[in-house]
Design a protein that fits this description.
Blueprint: E1 2-5, H1 8-15, E2 23-24, E3 35-42, H2 54-61, E4 73-74, H3 76-80, H4 85-91, E5 97-102, E6 107-111, E7 121-129, E8 134-138, E9 141-143, E10 149-153, E11 159-163, E12 169-177, H5 180-188
C-alpha cells in the first residue's frame, strides 16, 4: 500500500461523464470476459478509447517495438479526471496509463506482465467503485483492497483478479518509467 489516497466518491462522480464511452479490453474470440477500458495516457493523437493494450497498439501503429513509456501523452479523459492529477503528476511523465472497468464475471487469469527486471516501467494501481465483490491475488495471496488507496504491483510475480459483484469495480493502472528518480519517489511514499 502506498500513501496517496484518491477519493472514491470524487472518482465515481467524475467517471460518470464517460459512462457510455467504455471499449472492450483485451477481447478474445474464444471466451467472454467482460472487461472494458479507457485510456488516460497514450500515443500522440490518441483519444480515450484508442488501443488500450500493447498488442492492440502495436497492431494499430505497425510498430512492434513500442514500449510502455512511449505512451506519455494525456488524453482529454485524463484532463477531465482531475481526482487523479495529484498522483499522476507526482510520477510525471507517465507511460501507458488507463482504467479498466471490471464488470461481473470478468477476470485476469494468473499471469506475469513483465517477468524480467529489465522492463522500462514499474506499475502502480488503485481500485475504485464496488471493490467488495472483487478479488486480487499476488503470488497466491489474497490482498485486501481499500477503494482509493494506491498500491505498487510487482508484475514479475504471478497475479490475478476476479470480479463477482453486481456493481463494477475500476482499476487505475499506471505504468511509470523506471528511472532512479521515480524509484526514489516510490520508496518515499510506501506505507511503512
Amino acid at each position: 500500500q502506498l500513501i496517496p489516497y484518491i477519493s472514491n466518491d470524487k472518482f465515481t462522480e467524475q467517471i460518470k461523464q464517460y459512462e457510455n464511452e467504455w471499449v472492450p479490453y483485451l477481447q478474445r474470440p474464444d471466451y467472454h470476459n467482460d472487461r472494458e477500458g479507457l485510456l488516460l495516457f497514450g500515443l500522440e493523437g490518441d483519444n480515450h478509447n484508442d488501443s488500450l493494450s500493447m498488442p492492440e497498439a502495436r497492431k494499430r501503429t505497425g510498430i512492434p517495438e513500442l514500449k510502455e513509456s512511449d505512451f506519455s501523452v494525456p488524453t482529454q479523459f485524463y484532463k477531465d479526471m482531475t481526482c487523479l492529477h495529484e498522483l499522476c503528476e507526482y510520477f510525471a511523465p507517465l507511460g501507458r496509463t488507463f482504467i479498466v472497468k471490471a464488470n461481473t464475471g470478468s477476470f485476469f487469469p494468473p499471469h506475469k506482465d513483465f517477468p524480467l527486471i529489465s522492463r522500462d516501467c514499474f506499475r502502480v494501481v488503485a481500485f475504485f467503485g464496488h471493490v467488495s465483490g472483487y478479488r486480487w491475488e499476488t503470488d497466491g495471496k489474497k490482498l485486501d483492497i481499500i477503494p482509493g488507496k494506491t498500491y505498487y504491483v510487482d508484475t514479475r510475480k504471478t497475479h490475478q483478479t476476479h470480479a463477482w459483484g453486481q456493481q463494477p469495480s475500476y482499476h487505475l493502472i499506471m505504468n511509470i518509467p523506471k528511472t532512479w528518480e521515480n524509484v526514489l519517489k516510490l520508496m518515499s511514499i510506501c506505507n511503512r
